[in-house]
TrEMBL record:
Residues 2-47 form the NOT2/NOT3/NOT5 C-terminal domain. Residues 62-83 have a biased composition (Low complexity). InterPro entries: CCR4-NOT_su2/3/5_C_sf, NOT2/3/5_C. Gene3D superfamilies: CCR4-NOT complex subunit 2/3/5, C-terminal domain (2.30.30.1020). Residues 1-25, 61-90 are annotated as: Disordered. This is NOT2/NOT3/NOT5 C-terminal domain-containing protein. The lineage of its organism: Eukaryota, Fungi, Dikarya, Basidiomycota, Agaricomycotina. GO terms for biological process: nuclear-transcribed mRNA poly(A) tail shortening; regulation of DNA-templated transcription. One of its GO terms (cellular component) is CCR4-NOT core complex. It comes from the Eukaryota.
Amino acid sequence: MHLWITKESGTPSSQKVPGGEQGTYSYWDPENWEKSRKEITVLYTDLEEKSIPVFAPGQTLQMSQTQPSIQSQQQQQQQQQQQVIAAGGRAGSFQGMGMAAM
């Protein structure tokens, strides 16, 4: 069985026992879909070795760009303005007209 446990802060420190530690740990309970606490004995031999540190140097989370960056948006706006100027200012000539004029 795989279980992610963490030591609970603000509780008495765990006590060393032969081959492990006994103390209060938090864990995720998938059956009740909640974080729970339990007094347990953790044996070092039962723990799985981590092959890669959780926060290894050089490994960072990258946000994917679903929207253009601010610089990209500014470049697009400048291009649109240049197109309007090149078109003799015709773009946007319908602004301010009421529905009756259409």
